[in-house]
Fold this protein.
Amino acid sequence: MGNPVLRGDLRARFGSRKIVGIEIFTLGVLGMLTFLGLPPELAQVGPSRQASLANALLVVQAVLVTYFASAFAIQEIAVEGEKTAVDLAFGPFDPSVIVTGKSMASFCTILYWLLLGAPLVMFAARIRQEPIGDIIAVTAFIAIEAWAVAQIGMLYSILVEAEFSRMLAHWGTLLVLFVGTLALPDPARLANPAVAVAHTSGGELLAIICLGYAALGVMGDYLAAASLRRFAAA
């Protein structure tokens, strides 16, 4: 980890009691859903694709991981000891180093959260004898999608100065992503993470949607670095 911003953010995040609380909350929600879903699942063991407990857990993971990752990036939830991208822009770091470090810290955090929930998801998948390959495909999609939204959150944290306005922009983006996209016609509706998770767990590898989210994240990083240069030049 040669990037100093990445090292600093990971040190702050993995030492934060706030993040530990969020992880306990997330695992608690997944564990409760698993417990509540076990009786009917165990009574219907088989390769059925409908009413899948594993699919429900993955949708919940997509929602929670996306929200928390973007909330950290936009500083809606501040981590003790973690400096914002704007604060770092007044230091000795190049904007590209700051954005790369922040971006990689978000991705590492997302992967860690998904790994924490993986045992419960795998357990639920084995109940219905679902292919492990489907679960891996869904997890990869969630990681890319959550990372992309986090990068948009980081861009908001640079462009929008007022905290209340940033919060409105953040929640507006989440509502458009998880609710607004449901009004789109069938092919475009796959942009909704919950819908995409359901299709991916059904055996479809949504490569185009993954590439679209990856492009969104890269664009967010590019615009964030460009926006930071005005602070570095000041």
